[in-house]
Specification:
Protein name: Tectonin beta-propeller repeat-containing protein 1
Shape: globular
InterPro entries: Beta-propeller_rpt_TECPR (IPR006624), Peroxin/Ferlin (IPR006614), PH-like_dom_sf (IPR011993), PH_domain (IPR001849), TECPR1-like_DysF (IPR010482), Tectonin_beta-prop (IPR051513)
Strand content: 25-35%
Main location: membrane
Number of strands: 73
Subcellular location: Cytoplasmic vesicle, Autophagosome membrane; Lysosome membrane
Strand order of the largest sheet: 25-26-27-28-29-30-31-33
Radius of gyration: 34 Å
Structural class: mainly beta
Family: Belongs to the TECPR1 family.
Oligomer: single chain
Number of helices: 13
């Protein structure tokens, strides 16, 4: 199976493994049915289990991206005067074949596959790459002696040389249970295992996809599986971990929480687990809740521990966190369970003692980790549903076709009722049993039936004991725990109840009465109740009773308060048949029908208005006013927030045009003054990233030049969004912009993740009179993204901060933009996870060493990071914290083992190791926050992406399939197949092999594919075409001298790249016969991102752009003067900013007027360029420019960053 979004795993009492998707409603049997299992433990991409032979098995999901592991060895040679370089080495030298250190002997034939689950992908070959630069043919690197620093060039004193040989092996046992070896020594007997738990994926991301796998053997010993990661999914070996007693069961959380239970009934907690020591250091014993009944089972999450004692009572551990993994005390919870399991987001599942059903703990939130009530999962099995298809399909036909069929169906219903009468089936209401289907439906959907059903559903949804966790529930009369929310048995009810008899299902007694009428299923539509058809008749012939579960695992099941689950109501076969039949009406037929009605209405409107065309309007104009109170960041010093009154006046003229004016009334020296802004002059309204205020900025062309917008703040996020929505709609009305963006639109993203779009003008690129890009109007589209790419066929893809891929659905609006400003359909919920950072700074002093005491001139010391940032984060309904504070080790410059970076003083460049001259240090703390919003985006599962590129195409192109390339978050290069205008999401991924992880990819209009590796090296993919979408091989292109690239963008004939120091480079000499080009030419500095369009137009996100009032980082800039004879352009035109993170113009294929092509670059250079610092001293050649300011200039505090 391809990995789905989220799965709940379970094992029944017969050892069969099932999965239940969060998007589905049926348990699906695992494909590999040959094995019987006792227990399983799952994460998102894999599952480990203990089979009935007490051996460990791993189930790895299949994917379009293969699991590859790189084996390497080095060939070493020394030079001698007779034969030159040869294999004869000195006795003190390393082996001829060795590892990178030279200490280990590694011949080519000594490498073997670690298990039968691997296969060789290719033979050995030489790696012709060193430090991001290509070597000479043969891959040799030279040095004076072993060991030393190697270089690709041979010198007169090069006495030794070496080259690297690499070979890949591929993991082949996917979508099947692969047996994990118990011992490295095959002569030893396998150690029988009793329990297993996997977790720890949040401890560190080095190596990629690292997991902690813990197991308990029947002898009571605890084992840890070494080296389990993405590239080695089965690990390497088992390590024995000493314990204070014999262990029975173990549970591992996503972070550093690990608990186990002992035979004596105590629990032991592992302490000292971190990224440098994932096995931990020591054990601490935790006593059970009561001495009479020890702990039988335990399960842990991020900040929670649940336990089941030997008397089957459920307990919650209070006060558990990363600083106190043992917690403080036990709280008894309502209900009795065989076992419990904590999954993602600390959600809890359990298996009931009496009915063996799977229960879900409802109401678990970060503020209430213990939840509120247990609710049974009543989803059926896929095999059961398939056995009801033939009968229900005939029943559904009776609902849609003729009365004759309906009469026949009533006979079938009666006959089936006779067949099931021998068993204890629930009684059908006498007034409905003999009623025709249509009448039955009317009766059920009538006022009485509807109200009764609603009351019954409401009663069933209320937990009878929704009490505090400390209060234990007394047992009910029939011995059941009232806290287990289960529908009541119809046999126990009054013969003439007030509610319908089939509104509830008795799960506990299901093994006594397997025959359930279709009308007994709760919360189904009226169609599912039409036939009174007994599903139990079909189950009687093939399906057994409802499954009895032995184990459940939610470690790979992502559920939160926003999730909509279909697990708690049974759906009859009739409903699915009706839905499948209704799909026979194609969307094309529906669209044609709507268009016809719309056309008829339009024609009628024209006919009716034709006779009144010469009449004057009764009302010449109308005025509409909205007022409110906001805060304004005043424009004079000292700059501060001041209370203002805001009024928006909207008026309609004789021509029907609407325009609006925004007035801002403020006090200046006790005198009332005001600002006014015509909304038809506003170019953008954008939220501002402010720690203490819900603020937004309003730009006009003049204020864009100044880098000083109007900043307003509201008291709540909702009030800010109300004003933003109103002002945005007014701006769009003033410019008569409505509906979805065009295929030529320019997309951009702010550093806050907001998505904006602008409709390009033909005068934007090449015309006698260029339109300045600070006059472009940007409107917001719902969603939250980090990166976005598009082309002129309307294909738009985005990537979130959590690396989730999204495809554009064609809608508009979403988020806070509602009503008429948003499309009615194609708007979907979207979530993203973003990190909030804070730095902890320390200075060294001779007495105490590094401490929190700093000079008054030093940077702010983030002592007590958690308390400080808690005050800085405003309360946003769309933002929720999903992790605790943790040290971030993925920071530029590297860190030491504790996450510190060192430097001589504040502020300067930091490095990850301490030297004698380092007197200050810092480390970064991070916290993950989840954003819930909506927009015209659909998720493209399951592979997480880092970069994406879509082939730019002109308006004349009519290609059926559209080339789309991507780089995964693990560095794999992928090619998307099946992308068309009708199916922009495509069908599947095609993996393109590489020798190292990549970070950027781009494809040009003629299928020129360029990419950048993680080490900064550049590659060109040869022979890419529509017939051969993945090409054949990579060509290593030398990078600019002493620079490492980080991003590339390819247009029609131009290729530009940005290096890690912010320099923009143009690739010279690209021709159809030599597409790799010949050399690099420097264009500009202070560049963050570049986007080259289908007409070779160049747009960038630039840093340090100087305005008349302020300096801004993250500014949209347009390269003017780009012509076939001058592809690098002449100068920069500065647009919206700062605070912008990404821009793409790869959809703008609007051809400029032909007369514009004859213009020279003199008009462009006539623009004021006094802020540019050309390398040629202003002698008319502006091909090399510096953006705005010197490197040393400081940013002003008042610069607006969104």
């Amino acid at each position: 199976m391809a990995i789905p979004n989220s799965l709940l795993w379970a094992v029944d009492i017969f050892g069969r493994v099932y999965t239940l998707s969060t998007a589905g409603q049926y348990w699906e049997l695992c494909k590999d049915r040959q094995l019987e299992f006792k227990r399983v433990s799952a994460v998102k991409h894999c599952c480990w289990g203990i089979a009935c032979d007490h051996q460990v098995y791993a189930y790895i999901f299949s994917s379009d991206v293969p699991i590859r592991y790189q084996e390497e060895t080095y060939e070493n040679q020394r030079w001698n005067p007779v034969g030159g370089f040869c294999e004869k080495l000195m006795p003190s030298d390393r082996w001829q074949w060795s590892d990178v250190s030279g200490l280990k002997h590694q011949q080519l034939d000594s490498f073997t596959l670690p298990s039968p689950h691997w296969e060789w992908e290719s033979d050995w070959y030489v790696d012709e790459n060193i430090g991001g630069e290509p070597t000479e043919k043969g891959g040799w690197t030279y040095a004076i002696d072993f060991p030393a620093t190697y270089a690709k060039d041979k010198k007169w004193n090069s006495c030794v040389r070496r080259r690297r040989w690499i070979r890949y092996r591929r993991y082949k046992s996917r979508d099947t249970w692969a047996k994990i070896s118990s011992h490295d020594d095959p002569k030893q007997l396998p150690d029988p295992f009793n329990d297993i738990s996997i977790g720890g994926w949040e401890i560190t991301d080095e190596p990629m996809g690292r997991l902690s796998v813990w197991a308990v053997s029947l002898q009571g010993r605890v084992w840890y599986r070494e080296d389990v990661c993405h590239h080695n999914p089965e690990g390497s070996s088992w390590s024995l971990i000493a314990t204070p007693g014999e262990a029975v069961q173990i549970s591992c959380g996503p972070y550093d929480l690990l608990w186990a239970t002992l035979w004596e009934g105590q629990a032991i907690v592992r302490e000292g687990i971190d990224r440098n020591n994932p096995q931990g250091i020591s054990w601490t014993i935790v006593e059970p809740p009561s001495s009479e009944n020890g702990i039988l089972h335990v399960s842990v999450g991020v900040n929670v521990v649940w336990a089941v004692t030997k008397d089957r009572k459920v307990w919650f551990r209070r006060g558990v966190n990363s600083h106190n993994p043992c917690g403080t005390s036990w709280i008894e919870m309502v209900g009795e369970m065989m076992m419990v399991n904590v999954g993602l987001n600390d959600q809890v599942w359990g298996i009931g003692c009496e009915d063996r059903a799977v229960y879900f703990r409802q109401g678990v939130t970060p503020s209430e980790l213990s939840g509120k009530t247990w609710k049974a999962i009543v989803s059926g099995r896929e095999s059961d549903r398939s056995q009801t298809g033939s009968s229900t399909s005939l029943l559904s036909a009776g609902c849609f076709f003729s009365d004759d069929v309906r009469e026949q169906m009533s006979l079938i219903v009666q006959s089936d009722a006779d067949i099931s009468s021998d068993t204890e089936s629930p009684q059908i209401h006498p007034n409905l049993a003999d009623t025709p289907l249509s009448d039955a439906a009317a009766t059920i959907n009538g006022n009485n039936g509807g109200s009764q059903s609603a009351e019954a559903s409401a009663n069933a949804a209320v937990d009878p004991l929704d009490s505090a966790p400390e209060e234990a529930s007394p047992a009910s009369d029939n011995g059941e725990k009232a806290g287990l929310e289960k529908p009541e048995s119809s046999a126990d009810q009054d013969p003439h109840p007030a509610e319908l008899q089939w509104t509830n299902i008795d799960l506990k007694e299901a093994h006594k009465k397997p025959l359930l009428s279709a009308s007994t299923f709760p919360e189904t539509s009226s169609l599912s109740s039409l036939g009174m058809f007994s599903v139990g008749v079909e189950e009687h012939y093939g399906a057994d009773e409802h499954p009895l579960w032995a184990w459940v695992c939610g470690g790979g099941c992502l559920v939160d308060s926003h999730s909509s689950l279909k697990w708690f109501t049974l759906q009859s076969g009739l409903l699915s048949s009706v839905q499948s039949l209704s799909l026979s009406i194609s969307p094309a037929q529906t669209t044609a029908w709507r268009k016809q009605i719309f056309q008829q209405l339009s024609e009628r409107t024209k006919r009716e208005l034709e006779n009144f065309r010469h009449y004057e309007q009764a009302i010449e104009q109308s005025v509409w006013v909205k007022t409110g109170t906001l805060q304004w960041w005043r424009s004079w010093k000292p700059h501060k927030w001041t209370d203002v009154r805001v009024a928006l006046e909207q008026f309609t003229g004789n021509d029907g045009m609407r325009d609006s004016i925004l007035f801002i009334y403020y006090m200046f020296h006790e005198e009332k003054k005001y600002l006014h802004v015509f909304l038809n002059e506003v170019t953008i309204l954008v939220e501002v990233l402010n720690d203490a205020k819900h603020s937004f900025a309003l730009y006009t062309p003049e204020r864009t030049k100044q880098r000083w917008p109007i900043r307003l703040a509201a008291t709540t996020e909702q009030e800010m969004h109300d004003w933003l929505a109103l002002l945005s709609m007014s701006c769009c009305e003033s410019r008569r912009i409505q509906g979805p963006p065009s295929h030529q639109a320019i997309w951009s993203i702010t550093c806050k993740g907001d998505v904006f779009v602008s409709e390009p003008s033909p005068e934007l690129e090449a015309a006698p009179h260029l339109m300045p890009c600070d006059q472009m109007f940007w409107r917001q589209i719902g969603g939250h993204l980090r990166l976005i790419e598009c082309n002129s066929h309307g294909i738009v893809w985005g990537i979130g901060y959590d690396h989730t891929a999204w495809v554009y659905t064609g809608g508009y609006g979403g988020g806070f933009i509602q009503g008429l400003a948003s499309s009615a359909d194609n708007i979907y919920m979207q979530s993203d996870v973003k990190c909030v950072y804070i730095y902890e700074n320390q200075r060294w002093n001779p007495v105490t060493g590094y401490s929190n005491r700093t000079f008054h001139t030093s940077n702010y010391n983030a002592k007590g990071a958690e308390e400080e940032v808690k005050g800085d984060l405003p309360a946003m309904p769309s933002l929720s914290v999903v992790s605790d504070w943790y040290i971030d080790f993925n920071i530029s410059g590297g860190t030491d083992r504790e996450g510190w970076q060192y430097a001589a003083d504040f502020p300067t460049s930091y490095h990850g190791h301490k030297t004698m001259k380092d007197f200050v240090r810092r480390r970064r703390w991070a916290r993950k926050c989840k954003i819930i919003t909506s927009g015209p985006w659909l998720e493209v599962p399951p592979i997480s992406l880092w970069d994406i590129a879509i082939i730019p195409s002109s308006a004349a192109d009519t290609e059926e399939s559209i080339a789309l390339w991507a780089v995964s978050d693990k560095g794999d290069v992928l090619c998307r197949l099946g992308v068309t205008q009708q199916n922009p999401a495509g069908t599947s991924w095609l993996h393109v092999g590489t020798d190292q992880p990549f970070i950027s990819v781009s494809i040009g209009a003629f299928h020129q594919v360029w990419a950048v590796a993680r080490d900064g090296s550049t590659f060109y993919r040869g022979s890419v075409s529509p017939q051969k979408p993945a090409g054949d091989c990579w060509y290593h292109i030398p990078s600019p001298p002493k620079q490492k690239l980080k991003q590339v963008s390819v247009g029609r004939t131009s290729m530009l790249a940005v290096d890690k120091n912010g320099n923009l480079w143009y690739r010279q000499g690209i021709t159809p016969s030599y597409p790799q080009g010949s050399s690099w030419d420097h264009v500009s500095n202070n560049i963050r991102k570049v986007s080259v369009g289908p007409l070779d137009q160049v747009w960038v996100i630039a840093d340090k752009v100087q305005g008349s009032h302020s300096l801004s980082c993250g500014t949209v800039c347009h390269r003017t003067g780009v012509q076939p004879l001058e592809p690098k352009g002449a100068s920069w035109d500065y647009g919206i900013g700062g605070g912008w993170e990404h821009i793409t113009v790869r959809g703008n294929a609007t051809e400029a007027p032909k007369t514009a092509l004859h213009e020279t670059s003199e008009e462009h250079s006539a623009k004021p360029t006094d802020l540019e610092d050309g390398e040629n001293g202003g002698k008319g050649n502006h091909s090399k420019t510096t953006l705005m300011v010197n490197e040393g200039q400081e940013l002003e505090r008042n610069s607006v960053n969104c």
